[in-house]
Amino acid sequence: MIELINELENKVNELLGAVDEKKRHIEHLNGEIHEKNEYIHEVEEQNNRLEQELQQIREDAGQRQDSLNQAGERLRSIINRINETPQ
Q1: How far is the first Cα of the chain from the last one, in angstroms, to the nearest whole number?
Q2: What is the mean pLDDT of each run of 10 residues along the chain (87 residues)?
C-alpha cells in the first residue's frame, strides 16, 4: 500500500513539474507576444510618419508642377508676343 502511495506521489510531483514547466513556457510566450506587439506598434507609428511625409512630398511636388506650368505658360505667351512683333 505504501508503495502505491509513493508511486502516486511521484506521479503527482511529475505532473506538478510538468504544469510548472508549461506555466514558464506560457510566460515566455506572453513575453514574446508583448515584445512583438511593441514592435508592431513602433512599425505602425513609423509607417504613419512616412505616409505623412509622402503626402507632404506629393503636395510639394504638385505645387512645384503648378509653378512650372504657370512659368511655361508665361514663357509661351512672351515668345508668342515676340513672334507677333514685326521685325
Answers
A1: 128
A2: 93 97 98 98 98 98 96 94 82
